[in-house]
Design a protein that fits this description.
There is one protein chain. By secondary structure, the protein is an alpha/beta fold. The relative contact order is 0.07. It is built from 18 helices and 14 strands. 31% of the residues lie in helices and 13% in strands. It starts with 22 loop residues before the first helix and ends in a 16-residue tail after the last helix.
Length: 642
């Protein structure tokens, strides 16, 4: 076809120089005598001068990939049984270039090139069925993983991969492993023998790049389980499912300071501990507590300066945020469930409140060290007002009954200190909110209430030295006889609600200020019922979620839980159901039967007799099985299959 007419203003238009081949000529024949495209065949493109470099690279790359695919396909078909264990899902490609069948083309085996990685992953995808869950690439001189990771994602091999060994390669930096970050199912990685192993703190860098990893170089990435006992919470304050859905009772809500005062009167505490809790109740939390039915300073109108005598002259105060979301923020709903006010004054005060908290964050566990730690009585009172008790907010404290008081010296040296830890929820309500808001209004329907969990650790000492006779007679300091040396405050996101720490209530015309219900299970973290923690242990140890939930309610610490889950790893749920039928549907007894089979190869019927003799005491069972006691004779293999 002729060239289109171009206006040249009397000048001769130069023909454009095309360097791409003519598609009509490649198909057979081009009838345009003035065709500006190159009349070359695809097979001679590489030898044609003036060919587009991009076309030349694409053609040569495709040809190289096809040749590599053919070579690797022949190798896989011949050595499939030797390199791929279908039962274990392990594909062993270690020292691939040293195989006898590939020694002649070992120079073409390069895991750092795109062509080879693409050809290899295509062959694995087509031949290895089901796809491998474990891949060994040891000793292949790998310096980068970008091409290999991209090729694996293209064919879907990343979804099945759980274990990857890259030992004895040439990986030098954590950036080289960044390509594995999208591999969210990868739980075990081996890097022994790489230069990266010599870098300081390389484990921390890899764990930060790949948070889904559970095992690195054969060692767990998680902290070792602790034998510290879990907190034992009082179940009387917990509502039942029926009460939580529809009913209300006086005990299902944690009243402000009610639990702490009840704990003071508990007979399980010593005189020193009771005196300290009474001091915190009356002199620290009480003066700034909002009370809608009282007047004066109990309404929350008192200044923080009234607490000056509570702190020592050189007292210290610090604020830590567990995460950025722990700082206060504008709630999404008001107390009555309406949209919050857009008053700029209110928003400005909340934003300023949040900035004061974030700027003074002193969380050493996250590597944040604030230069604004308050030291001195005056400075402590000033920062308390800035961080927790601004004048424009009314404050309530929902204190949990699980306070902890440790007596360090009083009663022995009589010059020691007492460490008290208090858990709870702080609620801030803006005093004047919206067009209907009034100062100190008791029924603000447009009140903005912010909820945050808190933990405060106090180091407290008596104002005067105590004698042995004082301790023996119970003459400990009264409410004003103590002084705070150190006050460490930690804020956390509200555990029992969403929407930036607000507890959404049904819409209504009026709402009592601080009408939110704060339940006991939302105040303090409980490892026995936390669903995310249970699910994490279920995935890590391959134990059904329902079984892990039952065990969390039975054990008392992490070490005991991990020991049991290790024995039960890989056992399906139907096995526990079969064993429960032998022990009257007792889930703990079914777990014991499974552990007996796993550890000592005891049949379920014989295991039932052992449980009866030992009265469901695992320590007695273990000592009896490990000793040579003839009463618990060993039996043969199991009658059920895992």
């Amino acid at each position: 076809m002729p060239q289109p007419y171009n206006k040249s203003n009397g000048k001769k238009t130069a023909t454009k120089n095309y360097s791409t081949p003519c598609k009509y000529f490649q198909r057979g024949r081009c009838t345009n005598p003035r065709c500006p495209y190159l009349h070359v065949r695809a097979s001679t493109d590489a030898a044609t001068p003036g060919l587009n470099p991009k076309v030349e690279t694409t053609i040569s790359s495709n040809v190289g990939v096809d040749i590599m695919k053919t070579m690797l396909r022949l190798f896989f078909e011949k050595q499939q049984n030797a390199i791929y264990n279908v039962e274990q899902g392990l594909l062993n490609l270690s020292h691939l270039g040293q195989h006898e069948d590939l020694r002649s083309v070992s120079s073409s085996i390069n895991f750092n090139t795109k062509a080879f990685c693409k050809a290899l992953c295509h062959c694995v995808h087509e031949i290895c069925l089901p796809p491998p869950s474990a891949l060994s690439l040891e000793g292949n001189s790998i310096t980068t993983l970008s091409h290999l990771a991209a090729a694996m994602r293209d064919v879907g091999l990343d979804a099945a991969l759980r274990v990857l060994s890259l030992a004895q390669n040439e990986l030098e930096t954590t950036e080289a492993l960044r390509a594995l970050r999208p591999f969210t199912h990868l739980v075990e990685l081996r890097l022994a023998g790489n230069p990266i192993e010599e870098r300081p703190e390389y484990r921390q860098g890899i764990i930060a790049e790949m948070p889904s990893l559970l095992v690195l170089d054969g060692t767990s990435t998680a902290d070792p389980p602790l034998s510290l006992p879990w907190p034992q919470l009082d179940g009387s304050a917990f509502p039942t499912a029926e009460e939580e859905r529809g009913g209300e009772r006086s005990g299902d809500i944690v009243s402000p300071l009610e639990a702490s005062y009840a704990l003071v009167s508990s007979s399980s505490l010593g005189v020193v501990e009771k005196s300290v809790l009474r001091f915190l109740h009356m002199n620290v939390f009480g003066p700034l507590e909002y009370d809608a039915f009282s007047s004066g300073r109990s309404r929350g109108n008192s200044s923080v300066n009234e607490l000056a005598d509570v702190y020592a002259l050189q007292a210290a105060l610090s604020l830590s945020l567990s995460c950025p979301e722990a700082a206060v923020a504008t709630p999404l709903k008001t107390s009555s469930g309406q949209n919050p006010s857009t008053d700029r004054t209110v928003i400005r005060e909340i934003v300023g409140f949040r900035m004061r908290q974030t700027e003074c964050d002193h969380n050493l566990t996250r590597g944040i060290r604030s230069p604004r730690v308050a030291v001195g009585r005056v400075r402590v009172c000033t920062q308390l007002e800035h961080w927790l008790y601004p004048p424009s907010f009314a404050v309530k404290h929902y204190v949990h009954s699980s306070m902890n008081v440790v007596n360090l010296g009083l009663g022995e040296s009589y010059e020691g200190v007492v460490v008290a830890t208090v858990h709870g929820v702080m609620a801030w309500c803006h005093r004047t909110t919206g067009p209907r808001g009034k100062n100190n209004s008791e029924t603000n329907s447009d009140a903005l209430v912010i909820l945050r969990n808190f933990t405060r650790s106090f180091i407290i000492a008596p104002r005067s030295q105590l004698s042995a006779d004082d301790i023996a007679r119970g003459n400990v300091p009264a409410e004003g006889g103590w002084v705070i040396l150190n006050d460490m405050i930690t804020l956390l996101p509200f555990a029992a609600g969403e929407n930036n720490g607000t507890h959404e209530l049904p819409s209504r015309t009026t709402a009592v200020l601080f009408g939110e219900k704060v339940y006991a299970y939302g105040v303090l973290f409980s490892p026995t019922t936390d669903p995310r923690r249970i699910h994490r242990h279920s995935c890590r140890y391959d134990v059904p979620v329902s079984v892990v939930g039952v065990l969390c309610a039975f054990v008392h610490n992490d070490l005991e839980l991990v020991e049991i889950l290790t024995d039960l790893s890989g056992v399906p749920l139907n096995v526990f159901q079969q064993l429960a039928a032998l022990v009257e549907q007792d889930p703990i007894a079914a777990v014991f039967l499974c552990r007996l089979e796993r550890r000592y190869s005891v049949q379920p019927d014989a295991g039932v007799e052992i449980l009866k003799r030992c009265e469901m005491n695992w320590e007695v069972i273990r000592s009896s099985m490990e000793s040579s006691t003839p009463t618990l004779a060993s039996v043969n293999g199991p009658t059920w299959v895992v």
